[in-house]
Amino acid sequence: MSFVxxxxxxxxxxxxxxxxxxISIACVFPFIYVFSVSFxxxxxxxxxxxxxxxxxxxxxxxxxxxxxxxFVNALKSTVFVTGIGTAISILISFTFAYVLTKKHVPGRKWxxxxxxxxxxxxxxxxxxxxxxxxxxxxxxxxSLILSGLTNAWSLIVIKGFLDxxxxxxxxxxxxxxxxxxxxxxxxVIPLSMPAIAAxxxxxxxxxxxxxxxxxxxxxxxxxxxxxxxVKSLVIDSDASGAGSVGSDDRVLPQETIRMASxxxxxxxxxxxxxFLQKHFAKGVMLGSVKG
Length: 291
Hints:
Blueprint: H1 11-38, H2 60-66, H3 69-100, H4 108-120, H5 125-134, H6 141-146, H7 152-163, H8 167-175, H9 180-191, H10 193-208, H11 212-217, H12 226-234, E1 244-245, E2 251-252, H13 254-285
Antiparallel strand pairs: 1-2
């Protein structure tokens, strides 16, 4: 029978855990406030009052937002950009990183040098805008996708992960008659699923939270993404200060509408994250230690 020794808590441990608990609570409170206000009934809402739990629950703000064409259009735009953009970004990133791992590829050092160069230097806003304009992609969702297909940090991390895969597996596949493309799809991709899951989360969050590029490239309000719409509701509506009329003919406070729009913009990513968390942690660790 074995006994597991437990480490005795020291005074420093108590102080450390107490500080971490206070910081965690301070970080959670704003989210609690946002959720609470969004579900508060307009009849009992009092401006500038902190709500830990709604005094009276109501879905009026959510019903109003989901009934507007602007939110539905923004949701469709964001889902399209996130879904298509994430899929293409994963394909481009892993294929390009796989090429960078092959020392026999002509110009590999120049390509790797170019990738590393972009870590330090950036073209800037104006050249990117002119590029999208010359490609006739302004006011198109494709401008949000093609302008952020991949980045140097992702390529370097993926390359490091692919370098850690056993080269003997690729050699065995080639002996069995696999081409380079066959080795990539049948050997490399299945072994890279944890890393793919991690970068799916990275790219999906990046596309879902697209704000600045959408603000620059999209001039049609019908093509706005959720983040631009939420910014319009949260900041631009402060100037008017007027309430909005809901589906039940009640005047809804702007604050409840703003908080409900923030919640609706956050919930999809919060739902997806738990399903990718296991693969995300594994994908981050793989390739970091070699033995």
